[in-house]
Amino acid sequence: MSTADWPTAQLYHEGPATADLVLPTGAKSLHVDFSCLGGLYTISPATGVDSRSGACGGAQSFDFDVTAVAPGTHLRIDVWVPADSRLTADLRFSPRPFAPDRTTTTQCATLSSITEAYTNADAGHDAGDVTDAQWSEQTAKAKTDLSALAATAQAHPEKAGLLGPSIPQLAEWLTGDGDHPGGFTHAPLGDFTAADALVGQICSANGTPIVVHAKYGG
Q: Out of the domains of life, which is the source (predicted)?
């Protein structure tokens, strides 16, 4: 199958931008190479395709499943960044289907529940609604789950996937120096915050982003 005449788009922009591509017959996925400077981003094909979002910083690549979209459809891709943030994006279709990695999918689901527990416990403590003892109770299962995830990643690195190197760094902090109220949401810049950011990028790129149902702050 020749893809030479398939539409592509290149975006170089300050602030939000939009591309409009006609889905060619035979395309199974949309590939986006993307980078931005400053703030948060969201890449959202508007025709019922899952979006990707995260924090700007470094080059990233995303694949979107477009098999549910009819060939010939005008696919509008909205790329949102802050008004003063510069972005570059290269968009092209591929005949190869996109499927989330199963190992990463499972890990991201577990990390979502862990992140939610720590985020809500820290926020509750900041608000004065959660005591130190209650914070420990609310994060106990998350700590156990994270330790188990890290132990598995270290024991079987060949099966731990892209998240394998980052998970033990999360566990080292949250079961060590960061094992206290605020240790998650107010962690100093370092190995933990770098690993946490990388986890977010990998999960987002896999189509299985970290999801947190916040009890505080909307």
A: Bacteria
